[in-house]
């Protein structure tokens, strides 16, 4: 697949130099509640090997962050972001498929993630990958007024 300027898009691991671009992607994708830069910095420091980015050779256009428990039994999808200009092209799927391939290879048994209950596109993507809603809407899951669906995939 090619990017907005006809450059090929590749999925690769994140590098420290990517942090400003990750922050830009997060602000574009989640303008009301992006991760602060320092949070992305700390996530990189602790889980840098768990970030995958979508790169056209000059700019990043998306990322996925997945974190595995210390016993390697469960993985949590922490964030999936694709820049608004490239949504609907299957890039979120591409990032998720690669993340799931990697955690399967590590022997992970279950993957969990949360999604805003009104985000029909994300719910549809996750369902198409085999995720199921665990127990309906979880009120205040991420704090007051921050309801989420918890979705789970058995591997």
Task: Provide structural commentary.
By secondary structure, this protein is of the alpha+beta class. Helices cover 30% and strands 30% of the residues. The chain has a 7-stranded mixed beta sheet with strand order 1-2-3-4-5-7-6, with helices on both faces. Strand 4, helix 3 and strand 5 form a beta-alpha-beta unit. The longest helix has 15 residues. It is globular, with a radius of gyration of 15 Å.
Q: Number of helix segments?
A: 4
Largest sheet: 7 strands, mixed
Oligomer: single chain
Question: What gross morphology would you assign?
Answer: globular
Biggest sheet, strands in spatial order?
1-2-3-4-5-7-6
Give the terminus-to-terminus CA distance. Answer: 27 Å
Q: What is this structure, in a nutshell?
A:
With 155 residues, the chain is an alpha+beta fold. The protein is 30% helix and 30% strand. It has 4 helices and 7 strands, in the order βααβββαβαββ.
Give me the secondary-structure topology.
Layout lengths: L9 E4 L5 H11 L7 H11 L3 E5 L4 E9 L5 E9 L8 H15 L4 E6 L4 H9 L3 E7 L9 E7 L1
Parallel strand pairs: 4-5
Antiparallel strand pairs: 1-2, 2-3, 3-4, 5-7, 6-7
């Amino acid at each position: 697949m090619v990017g907005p300027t006809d450059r090929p898009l590749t999925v690769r691991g994140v590098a420290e130099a990517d942090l400003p671009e990750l922050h830009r992607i997060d602000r574009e994708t989640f303008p009301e509640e992006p991760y602060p830069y320092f949070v992305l910095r700390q996530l990189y420091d602790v889980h840098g090997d768990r970030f995958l980015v979508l790169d056209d050779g000059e700019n990043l256009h998306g990322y996925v962050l997945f974190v595995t428990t210390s016993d390697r039994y469960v993985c949590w999808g922490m964030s999936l972001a694709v820049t608004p200009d490239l949504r609907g092209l299957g890039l979120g799927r591409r990032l998720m498929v690669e993340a799931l391939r990697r955690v399967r290879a590590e022997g992970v048994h279950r993957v969990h993630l949360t999604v805003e209950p009104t985000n029909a596109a994300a719910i549809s993507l996750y369902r198409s990958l085999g995720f199921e809603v665990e127990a309906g809407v979880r009120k205040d899951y991420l704090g007051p007024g921050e309801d989420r669906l918890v979705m789970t995939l058995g591997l």
